[in-house]
Write a structure and sequence with these properties.
It contains 4 helices and 5 strands. By secondary structure, it is α/β, with parallel strands linked by helices. The chain has one domain: Rossmann fold (3-Layer(aba) Sandwich). The strands form 2 sheets. Strands 1-4-5 form a 3-stranded parallel beta sheet, covered by helices on one side. A two-stranded antiparallel sheet has the order 2-3. The chain starts with 7 loop residues before the first strand and ends with a helix.
C-alpha cells in the first residue's frame, strides 16, 4: 500500500470501548490501548455511536483517548452510496475481539486483499 495513505478506522463505543453492567460503564482496556497504538502509528480514527456524537466524545474523554480521534460521529441510519458496503474495496469489518493488538501494517494487509 502507498505509505502516504492513512488507514481510516471507525471505532464503536458500546461493547467495543466500554461495557455496561446495569448503570455501571467499564472500559475495555485492550481496546483503549489499541486506540492509543493505532493513533500513535498514524491511523486516522473516528469514534462513533448509535447514541450520538456527544456520547462518543464524552466516552472517549472519560477514557483519556479523546485526542486519539480526528472526529466523533453518530452511526448512520442510512448510507447512500453507489456501491453496497459488501462491495467496498479496501474495507474490512472486525469484531473488537479480533481487532485488539493488530498493527496498522496488519490492517493494511487485510484490506490489500481486495
Amino acid at each position: 500500500m502507498d505509505s502516504q495513505k492513512r488507514l481510516v478506522v471507525y471505532i464503536d463505543v458500546d461493547d467495543t470501548l466500554v461495557r455496561s453492567a446495569g448503570t455501571k460503564t467499564m472500559p475495555v482496556p485492550s481496546m483503549v490501548e489499541h486506540v492509543k497504538a493505532l493513533a500513535g502509528s498514524g491511523a486516522e480514527l473516528y469514534c462513533w455511536s448509535t447514541a450520538g456524537t456527544g456520547y462518543a466524545r464524552d466516552t472517549a474523554r472519560r477514557l483519556g483517548i479523546e485526542q486519539s480521534f480526528v472526529g466523533f460521529l453518530p452511526k448512520p441510519n442510512v448510507v447512500i452510496d453507489d456501491q453496497e458496503i459488501k462491495a467496498w474495496k479496501r474495507f474490512e469489518f472486525l469484531h473488537p475481539l479480533s481487532a485488539s493488538g493488530k498493527s496498522v501494517d496488519e490492517y493494511w494487509q487485510l484490506v490489500a486483499r481486495d
